[in-house]
Fold each of these.
Amino acid sequence: MSVVTNPVTMPAPIAEAGKEDNYLTHSSGFLSWALTLDHKRIGVMYLVCIMSAFALGGTLALLIRLHLWNPNLDPTQALFSNKQYNQIFTLHGAVMVFLFIIPSIPAALGNFLLPIMLGSKDVAFPRLNLGSFYLWIVGAIFFLFSIFATGLDTGWTFYTPYSIESQGPVVAATMGVFVLGFSSIFTGLNFIVTINTMRPPGMTWFRMPLFLWAVYSTSIIQVLATPVLGITMLLLAAERVLGIGIFDAKLNGDPVAFQHFFWFYSHPAVYIMILPAMGIISELMSVHSHKGIFGYRMIAYSSVAIALFGFLVWGHHMFTSGMADVTTIVFSALTFTVSIPSAIKVFNWVGTMYKGTVSLNTPMLYALAFIFLFTIGGLTGLSLGALSTDMHLHDTYYVVAHFHYVMMGGTLVAFLGGLFHWWPKMTGKMFNDFFGIVSAAIVFVGFNLTFLPQFVLGTRGMPRRYASYQIEFQDLHRMSTIGAVMLGIGLLVALVTLIHSLMFGKKAPRNPWGGATLEWECSSPPPHDNFSSAPSVGDPYEFGNIEYDSKSGGYVKKK
Amino acid sequence: MTTAVAHPPVDSHEGEHHEHPAWLAHHFDDAEQQFDAGKLGMWLFLVTEVLFFSGMFCAYALYRNRNPEVFEFCSTFLNEKLGAINTGVLLFSSLTMAWAVRASQLRETKTLIGMLAATLGCAAIFLGVKAVEYSHKWGLGLLPGNLYKSQIEGAPHSEVPYLWYLCIPPLVLLVCFVLYYVYGVVAASKFHLRIAGPLVVAAGCYFAGVGLGVFLESGEEHSSEHASAGHDEHAAGHDHSEDHAVVKPKVDFLGTTTGPLNDVAITPAESATPESDVNQKGMAGLFFSIYYCMTGVHAIHILGGMLVITWLIVKAANLEFHSKYYGPVDNVGLYWHLVDFIWIYLFPLLYLIT
Amino acid sequence: MSAPTQEHSHDALGHGHGHGHDGEFSHPMPIWMLLTVFVALLALTVLTVYQSTFSLGNIEVWLSLTIATVKAGLVIAFFMHLLWDKPLNAIIILSSLVFVALFLGFTMMDAQGYRENLIMKPTLDDSQPAAMDVPVSK
């Protein structure tokens, strides 16, 4: 691949002219961002866009919860009509999954951190990287179109036959998913190539930070699974435009096949969402416990194992869809294999804290919240993977609570933890730790208040996606709604803390937390080229030679 | 020809990386790292392509397994002669592409451009033949899914000249390329002529493919008539032989049907399966859905390949490739071979069902 | 990873690039090899067409798939010069086939299982002829 260097960042660095050169000040102007090939700037652009998508999806979530404040047995009294409710939960799901969670950690934090952690100047294909960002934008535009058009109401899963018959703009949405899929594929492809070919001398596979192992495993899934989503969405679009009938029972097509196609991607996609989060937690646990990670190799291998096992279990989404009995049993049995590497990770994180010097700062509190919430999410997953209990719990609020514990309590909380952790590196500014801790506390309490009642609701038979419910569920629903509002407040506190730091934050030292990975060796924020000379690569979790330096307010290497 | 650097480097950090020639991106240490990265990226991309197509192969396997008789019935409508010729054309284009890679490594610019032009031309022939096949089927109402029209005598046939429509964009392109060539002659620019020549040839090849397709498609009724009889009567002549009791329609090369209607559906009715079961939207229609999806997506990949090969021709005309920088040719080659690879499976799976 | 031939492409650059690398990584394929592979591919195409003229029943699809796989193998090994490529690239492309097999295998296995529950409409049942397209044979 020929990659000519960035023609936009033409102004020569003005390092000598008093002001320190970094990637933010390296060049200025709108085009220097819009056409940048610098992975750090692309990561920041992703971050801004992804957070906007999250704000949109979060607002929709609050609307759902506000609607469910009342049982809505009389639709005329309800906040939204049933049709509007269907559109709102569809968009909430689709925006959150396709625009936020899947790109969140790999595309935003991964883009920013991967080359720096690896000690390379950039990702392997900087232009492809920028291209995938713009693909994300195009996909997002398709989604926004389907919001302002007549309204998509199929659920984020686009199950046939309803998605063939729905009046909503399914074609626009499927094209959006198709484009976003390619954005995701190209990001993953770029990361695999970068990690395989761009490691500097000394950076062996087992000296890579565990975040990179996690991103690498994620990328494998992105490359292998996402194309199947692409063809599924194309076939669905063709179904609607031409009536090809492959998934249409009216033409002897097979709707169950659609679900196989869809979940062959979308189950591994769950691991696209959670694996990078696990990578972040591995970093956070070790750095903020100031102790080497416990069981490095096992965590690394378990990331790859989760990526591969993730391909064997998609059928557990379809136990009640008319699958053959024998297949349901096979998929149910295989589902339990995924719990092994997940449990290995949780065990190792807890083992890392043992006898460590744990700093209870904002990133660490988010990491602790992750372990708590992810464990609940994972364990409740077992009762959904078991065939007999799933028959009862399928399509109830139990499922809703389960995947929110994993996706939101897991991925989002880890994302926030990682964001606070690397915020000083990305922006060069320290945030107010007190308000960060407050945000973590409110998010944790609000989250549990939102979703713990939903487990109870589910076991008592409250189906998901219903706009109304029996009066006996009202108390639990109201608890959930109060929790959702609280969660929203917690997230706002986090946002305000971060924005406040941009304006009033102290200048961040090179290494504010005492991390041993390479990104802490370059200045905060990093210079345009990351490293002026190839960094010396050591053990990423060796903290013995790092000590606090009160002069700079950060950590430095012992002389 | 002796210097690899055609343009002054645009690297603003030229001072820092003075060892970097223009073809080597600043974040790579050396040419081999750049090559390996590009190649690994391409292989990964091919993996995504394989999985992308796997969805359609899965649909194919599902429905063939469920309704084998539909597939037998429908594949009689596919002209296996055209399929075989297209297979040969694609295989030949793979040969020329592999040869082009060799030429780029050895800096044989003339051979390189010639081979790329041959590849482009083969791709155009392939699409020309495909255009004849498609337009012929559209004329007969052999359409996907819900649009499928049962193949019975007396049913109305489309008079739309689909093949003309499919010839308009290449015709426009041909005119543009010829004008471009004339411009190259007037400007006496070797660079432009090196590009325009292959483009004119390729656009012309499309029409050669159309001609070839029309010539062979006129024997289509034969192959479908005889399909159920065990393919043993493939006579040498492609004319409408008189020994058939049923008056066959004449499908002219525009894809429009004149004369009495095609009764191809009748023949399979004599086989074990009752024809009425398979000759309907939910059966044969589904086959054609799969057929159009598979070959259509494949054809889109051919078009994409033609675009990147054109890009290669521009770079080759600019004398950019040499033994340390031929990654683009190699990677486009890999992509092109994969497109061939897919067709190698599509051909027997769609055309050769007995 | 030896070159398929003794030919060496001449280093037209005339200068190294300062990293101590020999930097020679291109392996031009000899022309005779390309032509041989092409002829073999053509022969196999003829074979597969010829094979389809026999009625072999169930084996037929497997036979034609086998021939196609041999052809695909030739294309990958020689035209895509995977034989001389890094082993990693070979692992990558072959593993993609594993995942395709996984996808097709599970889906087909399941489809076989629920097949008896399918209701084909319009039905395939002989007792209910599809009225809309009565054949006008002969």
Amino acid sequence: MTALSVPALPAEDARLRPVPWRRMAWVTWRQHRIALTGLVVFLGAVAVLIWTVGLRLRHSYAAAAACHPASSIACSHLISTFTVGGFLANGYNLQAVPAVIGAFAGAPVLARELETGTFRYAWTQGFGRWRWVLAKLVPLAVTVTAAAGAFSALLSWYYQPLFLARKPLTLFPIPSNSLAAGLFDLRGVAFAAWTLAAFAIGALAGMLIRRVVIAMAATLAAYAGLAFAAGLYLRLHYLPPALARNSFSFFVSDPSRPVVVVSQWWTKGGTTLSPSAMNQVINSTFQRMMPAAHSSQEGAVAALKQPTNLRVLHYLGQHGYTEWTRYQPAGRFWPLQWIEGGWLLALSVLLIGAVVWLVRRRAA
Amino acid sequence: MGIGKEVSAADGRGAVSGRGAAASPIEFRLDAGSGVPTYLQLVQQVEHAMRLGYLKPGDQLPKVRDVVAALAINPNTVLKAYRDLEIKGLAAGRPGQGTFVQATLSQVALPELTALRRSLSGWLTAADGAGLDEDGIVALFTSALRDFYERRSGSRARGGAASDGTEGVA
Amino acid sequence: MNVVETRGLGKRYRSTWALRECTLAIPAGRVAALVGPNGAGKTTLLNLAVGLAAPSEGEVTVLGGRPAGSPAALDGIAFVAQDTPMYKNLSAADMLHLTRNLNRRFDQHYAEARLADLGIPLKRKAGKLSGGQQAQLALTLALARHPRLLLLDEPVAMLDPIARHDFMATVLTAMADDGVSVLLSSHVLAELERVADYLIVLSRGRVQVAGEVDDLLASHRVLTGPAAEAATCAGRRAVHLRRGEVQAHLLVRSAADDPVPVGWEAHPVGLEELVLAYLREPGASEPRELAALRKAEPSEVTK
């Protein structure tokens, strides 16, 4: 007995058109505008810092480059100002930026909804659960990646003098290697790709852990692990390393041929020598040739970095020792960038897909 | 049913105030602890109001929506009460307008009242003679009264003849 | 049309079954009340109906056969969860805008008028509203979608009496205006009789009672009589026994015109008494029989 008349549902309900995607644009903006403006403010502040320091760096470089002769006292003073000015030459501080962005932009998206219970509102609206999460994650991911891309363009501008320094001034003892672990992922497409990956990791962590702060911490930890693995090992093997024989220049930082060394070993007469045995040979040869040099072990090894010790290595080469080096030349910068960007993009898509799948599955 | 577009004058806390000519003369109240079913309370209040003259034929009973908003009761309950009144012949619904009082409660004629009173006195004397005290008389009478009306409403629901609304003197 | 239909529905979390063998058919146009003690499975059932949880066994359909959680179901159902979750940093106006963007149907005019009636300022952040106001805001958002079915999970548990009254008045007025069906869970029995016309009693994850309130009240009564005869009096139709030394009250399933055993009195039973009796007898359920009468301590004689 139905007391009140209940209007019958129209037949077209069976073929309901979904609520348009664009409606979520306002929702995503309104709910995440603090995170997005925070991102812009954060990157903006760091960008201002980079800009001012970068200008100083350029002035310092110009002064040092214009100074003649290069070996005079005055000029070497300028050169040392340039090289030891603390200009983020290693790039390690900036490594934190993608991680921080990923943790703060990515983790709260789902973790906050699950922690506060608002998913019980959001996932029972007409828009639908999995479309909701996709319509949030994709625009945020794109925004975050674009901002990171713009920022990394600024970083490339910043590091120009440090890379240029290779060419004219051989007195620069430590030029920046564009393949170096701390610098490779600040430029090209890598920085944007790493930020995207951090965001995707954050989103998945938020979905699995369901607590904002813990998810953020987990994102930072996971990102750090991945970044270390990539920088210390994976990156060196994207392309098969080249093999060089008796390229003693690798023992000294030859400014004209920056490389990243993958592995290095010596052979004599076809058999590989252990590093400790080889060290002894080098040391004894060194002692014989330069009796006045340091006698301590670390002094000897450090002294190998001096250009004059090429004579020791040439001597060894003439006496049957062969040095083999696997390396990645700096000329491979862009192919390596694309490879790294590629697999990070694939990983991000996979992780975001996993989030959408989990959201769908939690209810169905 | 349409969507109630007019902004209700009630905030749900107090009585619904009238809105011009469509207002009902009476208000319902609910005694939640009395044990009497809600719909029955509404029916009784209408009959009581009719008896006392608050409601005359042609007056409108409160709109279902207003009763629900004021008392927070199920609209089906109000509809059930109004349907009960319709079955008793006391009210009639006009589609789109509401429910309106239709008849008056028949009064019992004076000679009949006097005769009933006399027979009641006789019964009381007999009960007192049997040893029932005042509470005992009240208990016995109340139980018999309830049984009578339960049986009566049961037979009515099974399609018995509609009564003329004759009520005993309470 | 049945607004909620379940067949053998069950839900398991790790190793415990929150709901088991639940078969229901709740008709439209009713206020259906879901009652039971804490942990009985009320929230689980509501979550299954709205698609927030997936069944471990059985199936649940809503609004005349639509799968729970499907786009058509989500479109026609509005859900207000326990503690009315709300985005604390968004203003009431933002919440309206949000809900409008997330749904196909949204009556902005109704929502704004309703909030104005209630005295809820549109610009205030939702987190700064009182408990009653938050509940009313959540309800307004739900009703402005003009759903066919409104699901409420213990909506008034945290509200003071006035806020409770206003909340239920809003729900029932919407039912009168719009024809929306309501399924609400509650463990406050006293107010049910006024509000509910369909009753589901859950206990330990199983359905004990399901039916129209009028039918249930008409098909049960309390027999009062000598305790010594209690065991044989109603036999298998007995639901619950309370006995003293000499007198006993027996809640039985019987029609109003069934003959009363000699020496016994019959009384009608109220909704609260009925529900409590079933909850005290977890083994009793309306379709199934009571296995044995429980011998209780001499208890206080009612009436």
